[in-house]
Design a protein that fits this description.
Blueprint: H1 15-26, H2 37-60, H3 66-92, H4 107-119, H5 123-140, H6 152-162, H7 167-181, H8 189-204
Helix pairs in contact: 1-2, 1-3, 2-3, 4-5, 5-7, 5-8, 6-7, 7-8
């Protein structure tokens, strides 16, 4: 007669190793870097609360046990969710706020790409290309000096000084661009329409002479 297998031994992780494991996970740089400010603040708050909970559980159960194991599992679940979101943002925001990277397209080419993306319902890409068209058009008009790594905010401030009548439109366009590309907010037809209107307003506004 076969002997039934022995039941698995209960897991006794121990309080100190469990706390160390969880705190090491929460201390990883992924929770401090590459996340927009609201997300980063929420993660820091969560890390403090979990650390407090682990500390309390350790004091109440010096020998460790299932309570601490559940908390560690919770930390791992949070880590997976956070890394998925923050990792995506980190990949798209290697240089936060930059409008023009390694591209030499003209404003007309960026507008054409924006139109194509919008027609296909890819509004995030449409917003990105429309903002690039706005910045490139300012460079082509010599209102802005061509410069790699210029952010949407930079372009709005610099362009607004030369085109005060269009300063509000430039600020609105820059805000939509940052929220869409780096803030994780999905663009829609309204965002695309606002960028189109800003582009048209900037193109129709004459520059004010310096001084």
């Amino acid at each position: 007669m076969s002997v039934p297998p022995e039941p698995p031994l209960p897991i006794d992780l121990g309080a100190d190793p469990a706390r160390a494991l969880a705190r090491d996970e929460l201390a990883r740089a992924v929770y401090r870097e590459a996340a927009p400010d609201p997300v980063q603040a929420a993660l820091q708050w969560l890390a403090r609360r979990l650390d407090d909970l682990l500390r309390a559980a350790s004091d109440a159960s010096p020998g460790g046990g299932w309570g601490l194991l559940v908390l560690v599992v919770l930390v791992v679940v949070v880590a997976v969710v956070v890394r998925r979101r923050v990792g995506r943002l980190a990949r798209s925001a290697a240089a936060p706020g930059v409008v023009l990277g390694g591209t030499d397209r003209s404003a007309a080419e960026h507008r054409r790409l924006a139109d194509q993306h919008a027609a296909a319902g890819r509004f995030d890409d449409a917003v990105r290309e429309r903002m690039r068209a706005i910045v490139r058009s300012l460079e082509e008009r010599t209102i802005l000096e061509p410069r790699r790594g210029r952010t949407a905010g930079d372009a709005a401030r610099e362009g607004g000084r030369a085109l005060p009548a269009a300063a509000g439109a430039l600020q609105d366009a820059a805000r939509i661009f940052d929220e869409t590309v780096y803030g994780g907010r999905a663009a829609d037809a309204d965002a695309d329409a606002r960028l189109r209107a800003a582009d048209a307003e900037v193109a129709a506004t004459r520059a004010v002479p310096a001084g």
